[in-house]
Write a sequence for this structure.
């Protein structure tokens, strides 16, 4: 038994549930023969990867689905061994180069070189190029991105790149201009609901429309998350009821509790407790950026700030948002996340406390 | 040890004296002195030169001790000079328990141990090992020597065979002498020689016991000077020790100085599990207490003054105190500097060296330096600077105290309206003068600013009461992390970072702004920082997640925040045990009020303040995905079966880049 997300993932461009027009365009792209480098971007859970896999299948046929996971080790010029996992078929190679940290440049160069140098066997019936799929391109170092630019040009004859990322803002201009950019937006609420219902129908389940809508809202239209939630609902209770609780992940609940703890009392002792909770979140693999992020209220599921913002008044909101932005920036530049997380919490506590005291003095809050 | 005072020749050759005679340079320099004087160099310069050369060996750890080079015959020799030549540390080395500057309890501990294990009749046939640790110059070796003497047993000491010639000496005690006794030892490595030494030390004692009386046959094997190889490969030492414990008959005493910088050789050479395994008794010595040091110093001063009459000017009590603080618990360096300060105290007229001529010969141009040297000499050791220049050890603080100094931030109560006070709108920033210098404290704590900041960060909240202050302090900590973030400028910014953090913390604690309202806090326990552990765990978990769940083909972010937590809630069967365990551990969070995973580890008084493992690398060090736990290799076989149809079936291949296999037989063209 596999997850619904994987089980009902569309496998060809024609079977996509939404963004059908884009699917058709991609199909045309494949058929017209001249295939450019692609830069696929869009928020998490929108279906980028699904579309890329569909595209590859369209290019190479079902043989592309025969994947193997390879554990490669590459020796950098500095004699340092880099180990990296790749997923490959006969026609493509998928790698998340940012796993290699600072050595991602070497990984990119070496891997692309290897792929590009091995020609397709039967190029008459087959595409004459292979595809290298790079995920999380926005997390590559600048160094690696520049290396990528050169490599892209050099091996154009035998190799195409598909780059996948959440945002193009961290991808350097030269790369963006060398690629055909394809934006995969989030599905609309109706589309999410439609997918959920159809998946449930295939599972032989009856999903009430209200619940589907709730799941859609709660997931922030992140389809992967919505499907996971839906499956969790199924585990929790079946038959579904329209008003049943949608299970949240533990860390989200935990984060909410943390936010409540911050709002309910502001003191150094409480900050100490909050720190322990932050540590707890970190040890459970929740990245510090996620902890602090999640500003936009429509996606109420993520982040400390959005939890905190819910408790704030208009004027305070801008101030808190500004603080959060400041410390998130620090987080990116700095070294030890806890300093910045804690500084944010402390600052929020101070501001919030002052605000509450003022509110008691003056107008009613 | 009474032989030590027999004369210069004996002392200069004696390798096994309890302390290294450190003044060879000076006295070999007496020849140099007169040579210099011919050239008209002023007295002050010579002396300072001599001081410089002689302070070095005194601050060295005893294990680094090298045999003392033979002193050249001084040009001007008189009867009285001979006694002056001998370093006071040797002349006044303790010969009874009363004279030891070590705490009574410690002596008792060592004595009990020695008594227990020297008692041949009751002894179980096992070698016993005693490990003495403590800062250098706190009397470890002296204690062993004195006790051995009092208990009537001999001390057989190991010394590293550096050059053969230096071991050719007719010492009364059996120093290990590879040349005379064991001819086969010339090409043998130090490690092998050491092993052989232990072996023979055992056997030898056995033979002695047959021939002579029981008391004289008892002996203690003392090892201070470990072959260097053991520092590189502690395991080889451990093997030798294990063998010794099985076969040994006489007690073996290791004396290891520990240093503050944390690279503790005792922890490297004698890890805790080994100590437990071999039943090693570890007695750790403290630095010599100021009171007992003063006692010893004044005893020496009175003896010297009585012996040499007017030639030695006895420093007064204040000077002794200064020496005492300057040496920071190292009695050897204290005595050395005492001897020095007494010498500088003697006026030029009474010195046996013909200084007058030199002075007369000095040109007018050198008048300034001469005057300075003269005034310095007349002041003796009274001024702090001169004393520190003579024998001052780098004062150091234990981490516990260093943190306390920052966190309690003692301030001086300002008396009288001297300085201009801040204008009204800045009055909240008004602070009394600090009693501590934060940069100095960090420096003395012997740890990197970053690590120190982590300690501060772990502990500062307990000392704050106002939230505004906390916000400000945490802002400073954030600033300081920000400063050291960029690796290219890290080394230069490190100091600024710690400055910002410490001073920021001190300043922002407005409750402790004044000297008079500082008593409020009281004692707070200090703790070790969690961050390093947390960060390590975070990285390990992330890597493990990626290794275990590669088949889902997700980015780390969505894997960690979406898939894993939901997998924990689903009844989806896992592929293998490791995945189940991991999901249970990481996917689930304890939804309780207080997280119990992190235990506060209290920081004790004497902790060296280094944490194990990878302390500083994060950020600079790229996270190399090493397969933790059961890697892809194990998960391979049954993985394909459960994968969804859409999620293309991965098969494992542990392939290097070069021999990447191409499966072409499944190829199927459209």
């Amino acid at each position: 038994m596999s997850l619904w997300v994987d089980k009902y993932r569309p496998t060809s461009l024609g079977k996509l549930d939404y963004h059908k027009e884009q699917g058709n365009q991609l199909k045309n792209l494949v058929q017209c023969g001249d295939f450019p480098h692609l830069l696929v971007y869009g928020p998490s859970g929108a279906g980028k990867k699904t579309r890329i896999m569909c595209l590859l299948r369209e290019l190479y046929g079902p043989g592309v689905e025969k994947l193997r996971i390879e554990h490669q080790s590459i020796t950098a010029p500095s004699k340092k061994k880099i180990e990296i996992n790749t997923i490959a078929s006969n026609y493509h190679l998928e790698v998340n180069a940012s796993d290699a940290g600072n050595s991602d440049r070497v990984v990119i160069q070496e891997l692309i070189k290897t792929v590009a140098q091995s020609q397709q066997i039967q190029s008459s019936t087959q595409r004459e190029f292979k595809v290298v799929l790079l995920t999380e391109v926005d997390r590559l170092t600048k160094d690696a991105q520049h290396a990528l630019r050169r490599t892209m040009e050099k091996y154009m004859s035998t190799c195409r790149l598909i780059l996948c990322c959440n945002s193009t803002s961290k991808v350097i201009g030269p790369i963006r201009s060398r690629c055909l950019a394809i934006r995969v937006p989030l599905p609309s609420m109706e589309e999410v609901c439609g997918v959920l219902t159809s998946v449930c129908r295939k599972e032989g389940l009856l999903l009430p429309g209200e619940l589907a809508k709730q799941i859609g809202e709660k997931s922030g239209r992140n389809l992967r998350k919505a499907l996971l939630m839906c499956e969790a609902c199924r585990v929790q209770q079946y038959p579904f009821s329209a008003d049943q609780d949608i299970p949240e992940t533990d860390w989200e609940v935990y984060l909410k509790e943390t936010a409540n703890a911050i709002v309910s009392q502001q003191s150094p002792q409480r900050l100490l407790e909050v720190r322990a909770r932050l540590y707890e979140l970190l040890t459970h693999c929740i990245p510090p950026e996620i902890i602090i992020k999640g500003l936009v209220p429509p996606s109420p599921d993520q982040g400390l700030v959005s939890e905190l913002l819910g408790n704030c008044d208009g004027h305070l909101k801008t101030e808190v948002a500004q603080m959060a932005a400041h410390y998130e920036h620090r987080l990116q530049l700095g070294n030890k996340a806890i300093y910045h997380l804690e500084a944010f919490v402390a600052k929020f506590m101070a501001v919030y406390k002052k605000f509450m005291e003022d509110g008691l003095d003056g107008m009613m809050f | 040890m009474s032989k030590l005072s027999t004369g210069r020749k004996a002392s200069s050759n004696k390798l096994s004296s309890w302390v290294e005679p450190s003044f060879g340079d000076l006295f070999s320099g007496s020849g140099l002195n007169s040579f210099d004087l011919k050239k008209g160099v002023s007295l002050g310069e010579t002396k300072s030169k001599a001081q410089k050369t002689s302070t070095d060996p005194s601050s060295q750890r005893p294990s680094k001790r090298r045999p003392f080079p033979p002193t050249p015959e001084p040009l001007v020799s008189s009867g009285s000079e001979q006694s002056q030549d001998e370093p006071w540390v040797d002349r006044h080395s303790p010969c009874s328990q009363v004279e030891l500057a070590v705490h009574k309890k410690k002596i008792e501990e060592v004595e009990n141990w020695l008594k227990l294990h020297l008692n041949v009749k009751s002894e179980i046939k096992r070698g016993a090992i005693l490990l003495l640790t403590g800062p250098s110059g706190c009397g470890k070796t002296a204690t062993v020597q004195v006790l051995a003497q009092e208990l009537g047993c001999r001390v057989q000491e190991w010394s590293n065979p550096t050059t053969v010639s230096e071991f050719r000496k007719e010492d009364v005690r059996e120093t290990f002498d590879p040349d005379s006794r064991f001819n086969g030892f010339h090409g043998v490595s130090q490690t092998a020689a050491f092993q052989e030494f232990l072996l023979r030390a055992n056997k030898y004692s056995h033979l002695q016991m047959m021939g002579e009386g029981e008391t004289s046959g008892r002996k203690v094997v003392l090892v201070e000077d470990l072959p260097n190889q053991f520092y590189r490969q502690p395991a080889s030492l451990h093997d030798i020790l294990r063998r010794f414990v099985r076969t040994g008959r006489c007690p073996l005493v290791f004396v290891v100085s520990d240093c503050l910088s944390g690279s503790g050789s005792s922890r490297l050479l004698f890890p805790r599990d080994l100590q437990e395994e071999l039943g090693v008794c570890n007695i750790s010595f403290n630095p010599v207490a100021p009171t007992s040091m003063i006692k010893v110093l004044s005893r020496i001063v009175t003896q010297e003054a009585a012996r040499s009459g007017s030639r030695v000017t006895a420093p007064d009590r204040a000077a002794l105190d200064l020496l005492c603080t300057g040496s920071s618990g190292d009695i050897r360096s204290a005595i050395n500097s005492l001897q020095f300060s007494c010498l500088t105290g003697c006026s030029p007229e009474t010195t046996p060296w013909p200084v007058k001529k030199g002075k007369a010969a000095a040109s007018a141009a050198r008048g300034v330096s001469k005057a300075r040297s003269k005034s310095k000499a007349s002041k003796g050791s009274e001024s702090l600077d001169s004393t520190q220049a003579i024998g001052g050890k780098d004062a150091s603080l234990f981490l516990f105290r260093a943190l306390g100094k920052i966190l309690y931030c003692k301030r001086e109560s300002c008396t009288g309206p001297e300085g201009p006070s801040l204008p009204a709108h800045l009055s909240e920033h008004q602070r009394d003068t600090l009693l501590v210098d934060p940069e100095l404290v960090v420096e003395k704590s012997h740890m990197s600013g970053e690590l120190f900041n982590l300690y501060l960060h772990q502990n500062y909240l307990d000392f704050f009461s106002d939230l505004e202050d906390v916000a400000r302090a945490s802002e400073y900590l954030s600033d300081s992390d920000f400063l050291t973030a960029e690796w290219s400028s890290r080394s230069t910014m490190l100091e600024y970072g710690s400055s910002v953090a410490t001073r920021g913390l001190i300043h922002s604690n407005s409750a402790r702004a004044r000297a008079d309202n500082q008593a409020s806090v009281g004692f707070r326990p200090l703790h070790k920082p969690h961050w390093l552990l947390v960060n390590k765990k975070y990285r390990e978990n992330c890597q493990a997640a990626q290794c275990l769940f590669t088949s889902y083909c997700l980015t780390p972010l969505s894997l960690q925040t979406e898939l894993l937590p939901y997998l924990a809630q689903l009844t989806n069967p896992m592929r293998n045990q490791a995945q189940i365990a991991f999901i249970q551990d990481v996917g689930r969070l304890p939804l309780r009020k207080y997280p119990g995973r992190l235990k506060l580890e209290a920081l004790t008084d004497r902790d060296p303040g280094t944490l194990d493992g990878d302390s500083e690398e994060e950020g600079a060090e790229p996270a190399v995905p090493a397969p933790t736990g059961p890697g892809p290799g194990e998960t391979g076989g049954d993985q394909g079966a459960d994968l969804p149809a859409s999620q293309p079936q991965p098969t494992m291949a542990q392939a290097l880049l070069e021999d990447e296999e191409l499966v072409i037989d499944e190829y199927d063209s459209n």
Q: What stands out?
A: The first strand of chain A starts at residue 38 and ends at 41.
